[in-house]
Every structure is written in C-alpha cells, then in structure tokens.
C-alpha cells in the first residue's frame, strides 16, 4: 500500500529471522519491503572485529560466509542503535588493542562496510568514534572532535560517504551478484581479504583489507585489466590520523596471471586498514 500510494518511498524491515522474500514484491509472494537489515552480516562482522588480531585467522569465515546469501534480499548493512547500548559500549570501545589499534580498527570497519555489497546504515556517534556508550539522556560527545584521532575518524566517514556517492561500482549493483567478485577469500593466515566491485558499465574497483596490525609489503593481487591503478581511498592515511602507509605513487599492473585473473599488481597493505583502487 505504501508503494502504491507513495511511489518512490522506501520501507525497510528490521528483521532478524530467515523469513524468505521480505524485500520481494507482494505480487511474487514477498512481503513487499524495499530492503531488509542484514543482521547476519552485522553480527559476523562485529564478532570478527571484536577479536584480537592474533586470533582472527581462525575465524576468517565470519567475513566470507555472508556472500552465500548476500543477494537473497535487498540488504542494508546496519551498525544501528542496538549495537551501542545495553552494556555493549560504543563501536570504538568494542575494538581490541591500544588506542591506535582501536581507532585503526574502527576506520577499517567503516571502510569494509562501504565497500561491501548492500546499502549502509550507521547510528549517530559511529562517525565520531564516540568513546562512551550512547544514551538518550545526553548529546553526543562532540568535544572529542578536538582530539586528532576522533577528527580523523570523522574525516574518514565523510570521505567514505563521498566516495560511495561518486563511485558507481560501489552502489549500482549492490543487490546483484554481478557487482561483486572475490579476488582472494582464502588468505586466512594473514587475515587479508580482497574483492572487486563492478558497475553497470563494467567499471571496476579493487578493495583490499588487512585485518592485522602487520604492515604487508610486496603483496601480490590479481587484477582484471592492465594499466595504472591508483588509490581512491586508504583508511591509513595521515589525513585520518593513520600511519600513512600505502601506494601513493600508484601501481603499474604486470602481465602475470594471479588468483584467476589475467594481470596482477604488487601492493603495500597498511596495518589494520582498507584500501580501494581504481584504474586510471
């Protein structure tokens, strides 16, 4: 009724069971919602990020399992109010390690969310790296933006939103398996994950994530085409209060097939970070 009366309106189901076809039209037997929260992706991702990086290698499937059902609904990837109340602490407070690692993990988490297939939802305070658990009885801790680490996360979140808006490969095929392809989902030993995102016209970005605090030099990645690849985004940038490791000069592909792809590039993967690459 909402869609009939108000064409273009969105209805989103906060639904946590495996009830089928929640976001499919009623005329094919669905419930007719525009989208459905992906609670499985949220639970698996946060459970993985809560782990000390030394143990993440044993739980790599937390990051890969979601692709088995990612296109069964029109999913939203939620880090909602439910994840920062009732004793759970803020997203920042749930990250392991010292302060540097906590902030790096949070920037990595936000980057992974933006790059993953599905629409995005973040509760207020996530983008500030709020330290305290959220409470309806007080305002957000805006004063923390005077500290460079919090300001860095805010810049990171802002730039990720702009990147998502301006990069069709990150949103046009969010609900279609043709918009995603693994590069390597098996590197559990180094806790590294890499995949492609594609747009309707064949435009492609490479997304690579290092879930350990170990700087990885000389890491070879398969790539779909020859050319000069450059960083669109790096969550470890000094602009975000990171350690500023990366591939600032860009990367020239090599005619060496790798990971089932016809070409490859050799990259630097900063610690606890995500990078997004685009061909010039």
- What's the helix count? 6
How much of the residues is beta strand, in percent? 15-25%
> What is the helical fraction, as a range of percent?
10-25%
Q: Within the largest sheet, what's the order of strands?
A: 5-6-7-12-9-10
Provide a descriptive summary of the structure in words.
Helix 5 packs parallel to helix 6. The model has no long low-confidence stretch (mean pLDDT 96). It is globular and about 55 Å long. It is built from six helices and twelve strands. It is 21% helix and 23% strand.
Summarize the structure.
The chain is an alpha/beta fold and 280 residues long. It contains six helices and twelve strands.
Provide the descriptors you would attach to this structure in a database record.
four-stranded parallel β-sheet, 280 residues, alpha/beta, 12 strands
Secondary structure layout:
Elements: H1 2-5, E1 12-13, E2 35-37, H2 39-50, H3 61-64, E3 75-79, H4 91-94, H5 99-115, E4 119-122, H6 148-166, E5 180-184, E6 192-198, E7 204-210, E8 216-223, E9 228-234, E10 251-252, E11 263-269, E12 273-279
Parallel strand pairs: 1-2, 2-3, 3-4
Antiparallel strand pairs: 5-6, 6-7, 7-12, 8-11, 9-10, 9-12
Helix pairs in contact: 5-6
């Amino acid at each position: 009724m909402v869609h009939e009366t108000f064409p273009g309106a969105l209805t989103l189901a906060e639904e946590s069971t495996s009830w089928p076809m929640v976001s499919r039209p009623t005329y094919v037997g669905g419930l007719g919602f525009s989208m459905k929260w992906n609670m499985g992706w949220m639970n698996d991702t946060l459970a993985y990020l809560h782990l000390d990086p030394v143990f993440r290698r044993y739980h790599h499937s937390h990051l890969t399992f979601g692709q088995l059902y990612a296109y069964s609904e029109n999913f939203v990837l939620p880090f909602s109010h439910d994840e920062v109340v009732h004793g759970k602490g803020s997203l920042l407070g749930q990250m392991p390690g010292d302060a540097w690692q906590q902030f790096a993990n949070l920037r990595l988490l936000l980057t992974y969310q933006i790059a993953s297939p599905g629409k995005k939802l973040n509760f207020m305070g996530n983008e500030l790296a709020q330290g305290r658990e959220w409470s309806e009885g007080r305002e957000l801790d805006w004063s923390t933006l005077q500290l460079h680490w919090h300001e860095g996360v805010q810049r990171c979140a802002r730039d990720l939103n702009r990147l998502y808006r301006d990069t069709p490969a990150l949103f046009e095929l969010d609900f279609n398996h043709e918009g995603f392809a693994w590069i390597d989902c098996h590197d559990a030993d180094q806790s590294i994950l890499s995949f492609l995102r594609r747009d309707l016209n064949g435009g492609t970005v490479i997304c690579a994530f290092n879930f350990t605090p170990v700087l990885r030099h000389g890491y070879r990645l398969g790539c779909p085409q020859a050319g000069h690849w450059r960083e669109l985004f790096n969550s470890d940038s000094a602009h975000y209060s990171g350690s500023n490791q990366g591939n600032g000069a860009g990367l020239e592909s090599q005619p060496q097939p790798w990971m089932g792809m016809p070409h490859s590039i050799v990259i630097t993967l900063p610690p606890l970070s995500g990078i997004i690459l685009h061909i010039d």
